[in-house]
Amino acid sequence: MTSTTMTSTTMAQPTQYRLHAYPESVVTADTWRVTHDPLPELAPGQIQVRLKHLSLDPGMRGWITPKRSYMPPVRPGEVMRAFGVGEVTASASDFFQPGDHVTGFTGIQTEAVLDGRHMRKIDLAFAPARSYLTSAGMTAFTAYFGLLDVGKPKAGETVVVSAAAGAVGSIVCQIAKHQGCRVIGIAGGAAKCAYLTETLGLDAAIDYKAGPVDAALRQAAPGGVDLYFDNVGGDILDAVLMQINYRARVVVCGGISQYLDMGQVRGPANYLQIIAQSATLQGFTMRDYLDRIPEAFVALLTWHSNGKLKVREHVLQGIDAFPAGLQMLFAGDNHGKLVIDL
Amino acid sequence: MTSTTMTSTTMAQPTQYRLHAYPESVVTADTWRVTHDPLPELAPGQIQVRLKHLSLDPGMRGWITPKRSYMPPVRPGEVMRAFGVGEVTASASDFFQPGDHVTGFTGIQTEAVLDGRHMRKIDLAFAPARSYLTSAGMTAFTAYFGLLDVGKPKAGETVVVSAAAGAVGSIVCQIAKHQGCRVIGIAGGAAKCAYLTETLGLDAAIDYKAGPVDAALRQAAPGGVDLYFDNVGGDILDAVLMQINYRARVVVCGGISQYLDMGQVRGPANYLQIIAQSATLQGFTMRDYLDRIPEAFVALLTWHSNGKLKVREHVLQGIDAFPAGLQMLFAGDNHGKLVIDL
After folding, report:
1. Low-confidence residues of chain A, pLDDT below 50?
2. pTM surpassing 0.90?
């Protein structure tokens, strides 16, 4: 196809980022193929959407790993899976009209024909469009249910959160504070740590780039860790496991330290501590909570409007920011929830 | 002390196996020191006990690892910790009389002066003395609570058990069958596997020494694994994790494949599957259930007397069987619950 050789996206043609080949270890430029295929005709039930915002998430690494997971991997040639928000420009569905805004799996593309049954209508009176990917989107819902329903924090408990300045982690930290917990965030770099203690009001922040996490954690949490919300895996998970308390809960939300090379994932060497401490490692995804989204939506919007939930958005411009943007996540170079504005 | 050079235990003197030094990786002959120290005078509350049976358990490896765990490690010079059963020969406690039988942490020794508050009186009318270490002892209680209370099996579910012919595993398998589960045992060697299917009536047995566990498990559990009771860790845990079902529970009871070299424990590389499957890895020890022992005792005795619980005892003779006996556990050379008769 001649379209595969085009590099400009200034034309009025749609642009799609497609999976070219599964990365064996590291995601590279060769992982993707850019196309400018015209949109198909609308079939019954479908809607045509002009995308406005795309969400970049660590979970994308799993979607391009050809391994059994909670949803089938993206297949080579398919448009890369992504959450997005867009405006309906044409509809062959009874449930959507042009001008409606929708969210769901839109893919990394500028325009799309999507199955209306898989999209959710959103109301911009509640929140601006981009918020449906940030403070009131899947990321925020993940933080909400992962902390409250899986982790079940109790007032007075010590909660530790890794990737604490990240999209999920920063919301987890704030909700844990609302619950009356002592909250310690782990993040990379002084700027992120200052954000955690000064802006988000955490009790302590640990800069994992500045020194050993175990010593810093012993100082910040002398009474041990009751609940650990893990987004990173690797050395930090191992360090925290050595300081968990009896009946501690480890909420396993992600393992981004292991996502660069999915062929060489390193399991937590200290996992046998869960025997010694009668502790639990529990995984979850949002598919467990799809029917409870309204509850999280109302709570998050309320906190946000009360100033009790701060969400930092890291906004990239244009669809061609996608490949480098994804790398930012794995390098920890993003500050807050990473989105692309189109 | 001259007693450390003695090798004979035929004398009437007490014999003690003491920890000489923490093994850096593998337990060796140098780990232990044999003494024949005379018994101290009885202090108030103490009892003098002649040991009859000693229990050898994988957990012993953790007790001689100088790392934070559910109880403090044995210190160099101390008698090696062990469960045992013995007869009271003298008492300075109001609660015990000579002729009583007791169980608890007696240590690896032939006679001992013990604190009566830490010993439990047992009734040989219910079961013979050795059974209090086997079918009605901590091993059996561990199987009972680990499966029923931590794992929560439901009728019709597929339950997989590793070290299934071992002391804990074989009881777990049988209780899971009582619950109406489909039960698959993993063990090493054709003899153990035949025991699992023919004597214990399991639905399938997988010989991990005969070929890849993943392929055998796919065949034995085409519908996936709902509950995995893990005694071994390592490759087998990783293989099972790839075949767990949505909301599966992994009961982490032990990790004997990793006990040979506690300095180089390998965590489960496939642990991120618990995210994909919203699954749980949960650890426990019997300290969580000490107040519920009577419930387990009655259930196990009842099953045993009804012929619904078969417990194989692997009996070694004499205290000097201890060092080699412990190695048998790590090599998987024992057939059933390993005990020493004195």
Report:
1. 1-11
2. yes
